[in-house]
Write a structure and sequence with these properties.
By secondary structure, the protein is α/β, with parallel strands linked by helices. It is about 15% helix and about 30% strand. The protein is globular and about 45 Å long.
C-alpha cells in the first residue's frame, strides 16, 4: 500500500487542488489528512485562494480514499460540509509498518503516545521534519498551505518500509528507512 500524508490545508482551494493532483500523480492508495482542513485559525493569515466550501468539494470527491484526523482548528460544523468523517487519531498498517496518525496538538515528538507504533505522523506545527524517537520514526509533512520557519509546502509518502518527504512539486527532500 502507498500512503500519502498531508496536513494543515486551512481552507486553501489552491493547495487542496495541488494535493489532489500530487495524490493522483503519486499513484497512492490512500490519503491521510492530519487535521486543520477548512479554517485558517486565529493566528494564521488567510492562505492562498481561501475557499473552505471549494476544499470540501475537492475532498468529498475523494472521500473513499481519505483518512481524516481532527485538528485543533476543526469543529463539529466542518462535518456538516464533509462527506467523510473526522477521527481523533488513527492507527493503520502499511506494508507491515504500524503508522499512528494524529494532529500534533496533543501528541507529538515531545509528548509521545503510549504506543506510537513504527511511525508517528502529525502536523499542527507547519514545519516538515523526520526524527527518530526511540524505535519510532516521527514525521511531520508540515503545512501544505501555510509553512513556517522556512519549511516547504509538502507531503509525505509511506511505502515499502520507507518514509519520503516531498515538496508540493514532487521533489524529494528526505527519505528514511522505517525498520531494519
Amino acid at each position: 500500500m502507498k500512503l500519502f500524508i498531508a496536513s494543515d490545508i486551512h481552507g486553501s482551494k489552491y493547495y487542496a487542488e495541488k494535493l489532489k493532483e500530487r495524490f493522483i500523480q503519486e499513484g497512492a492508495d490512500m490519503m491521510a489528512l492530519l487535521g486543520d482542513i477548512y479554517y485558517h485559525g486565529p493566528r494564521n493569515p488567510l492562505p492562498k485562494d481561501y475557499a473552505p466550501m471549494e476544499v470540501a468539494k475537492i475532498l468529498n470527491g475523494m472521500k473513499d480514499k481519505l483518512i481524516v484526523v481532527k485538528g485543533n482548528c476543526d469543529s463539529e460544523v466542518d462535518q456538516m460540509i464533509s462527506e467523510f468523517s473526522f477521527t481523533e487519531s488513527a492507527k493503520i498498517l502499511v506494508d507491515n509498518v504500524v503508522v499512528t496518525l494524529t494532529h500534533g496538538h496533543k501528541f507529538n515528538k515531545d509528548i509521545m503516545p503510549e504506543f506510537p507504533g513504527d511511525v508517528l505522523a502529525y502536523g499542527h506545527f507547519h514545519v516538515n521534519f523526520m526524527e527518530r524517537v526511540g524505535n519510532t520514526l516521527v514525521v511531520n509533512p508540515g503545512s501544505v498551505s501555510l509553512p513556517k520557519e522556512n519549511a516547504v509546502h509538502g507531503y509525505i509518502i509511506i511505502e515499502n518500509n520507507f518514509v519520503s518527504q516531498f515538496d508540493i512539486e514532487g521533489n524529494l527532500i528526505e527519505k528514511q528507512k522505517i525498520k531494519e
